[in-house]
Amino acid sequence: MRNSKPILLVEDDRVDMMTVRRAVKDVNISNRVVHMLNGEKALEYLRDPDNKTPCVILLDLNMPKMNGIEFLKVVKADDTLKQIPVIVLTTSREKIDINESFNSGVAGYVVKPTDYKDFTEAIRKINQYWTSSELPN
Amino acid sequence: MQTTKSILLVEDDRVDAMTVKRAFRDLNVTIQLAHSKNGEEALEYLRNPDNEIPCVILLDLNMPKMNGIEFLKIAKADEKLKKIPIIVLTTSRDEQDKTESFQGNISGYIVKPVDYEKFVDTMKTINVYWTLSELPVGE
Q1: What's the pLDDT at B4?
Q2: Between chains, do B110 and A128 touch, taking CB under 8 Å as contact?
């Protein structure tokens, strides 16, 4: 990524979480991955002034307690959090999920490839883009 | 980006617009590129039912009549237009511009490289990402 702030991964599935961590490492991305299991915990993390603001948020959609779209809406309504680019990383190809995500302000919607090599490619492309792009302060 | 769709470039400088077109040609990106010279024209284009809604908008910031930030605010407040990803493509490294843009819900902020080869590389990165990403579907 363009800066060294952590990547916040909001993902309830631990296997998927491990895959993201592994891919980030295999692509040589030096940003730390901070992992939260659902939207509620992610919000707690973001609102704690002791925590570093992430450079981007990778967001799963289907999670218990507070799902991705609900989390997204809260973040984008919050003046201190809305600047952080949010990229949906999900298994869902549903048009309704895609449209709701973009209507709610995502900066990308990536369907998780099932093949690990393809998955690392996706992570690499995300990193490349958010290295080319400036990031908010 | 899917080849059946189009990109809207909002850019007042003709040379810069030509550079974007050239870069897409050099990358063999065959997607149609529509061009509006300022925010006002861009809104007219987008609101014209005869025009296809673009899959992404590349947005310059410094333009006469209606600048990038003004356009961004209007587009993001519009129920039909707000879901279109908007990528700022500018010479400005100004912190205020960055902050206002991200506050305004952009999907990327690219400072245009001066070197043409680097510029092409940057366009390639944009194309790769927005091909990987799903895109919203119009009504």
Answers
A1: 58
A2: no
